[in-house]
Amino acid sequence: SYAPSVLARIRPDLARKFSDTLENNLLYEYIYHLNAQPPSAELGFLHLVNLFRWARRPMIERIGNLDSNVPITFIYGAHTWMDISVGELTRALRPDSHVDVQIVPGAGHHVYVDQHDEFNRLVQQIATMVSDAGDELSQSVAQALADAVAEGATPPSSAAAPDTARP
């Protein structure tokens, strides 16, 4: 398709901005393919927001209902247009939960683009934390089953066993 080359002529600034991380035409190919597909994410987004693009049912109103064992990490760019106080409010509403708020210097709303190395480091850190928590949960479930069997209980079949798969 000729569309990526048209995009390159219209937006040469993108190639300059990402020249250290992307091959010549890769960014324009990516943008083209994002826009050539049916707009499913955009349509979904329109159902979640009102006329002014504010959330119809803000999650902050329901965040306290989330299981306290579910860790939450907010990653904001230091120059985002979003209200970063929501992260701190979530921390206040969930005092018995892991709530982390990360603000990445030098990034706007698209942290994963503006500061990709730092974003990737944070995501890896979060994934490791969740994985480690999953290991602890698996171990505690296994120990509880072993204790129950030792006390004479019949172990549950595999179909009835608690789901200990990692998130």
Tally of separate helices: 7
Q: How many strands appear in the DSSP assignment? A: 2
Q: Order of strands across the widest beta sheet? A: 1-2
Shape: extended
The amount of beta strand, in percent, is: 5-15%
Portion in helices:
40-55%
The end-to-end span amounts to 39 Å
Largest beta-sheet details: 2 strands, parallel
> In angstroms, what is the radius of gyration?
22 Å
How much is the average pLDDT?
A: 79
What is the chain-wise order of helices and strands? HHHHEHEHH
- Which residue ranges are poorly predicted, with pLDDT under 50 across at least 5 consecutive positions? 154-167
General description of the model:
The chain is mostly helical and 167 residues long. It is built from 7 helices and 2 strands. The chain has helices at residues 3-10, 12-17, 26-36, 40-48, 85-93, 111-114, 116-150, and strands at residues 72-77, 99-104. Strands 1-2 form a two-stranded parallel ribbon. Helix 5 (85-93) links the parallel strand 1 (72-77) and strand 2. It is extended, with a radius of gyration of 22 Å. Residues 154-167 have low confidence and may be disordered.
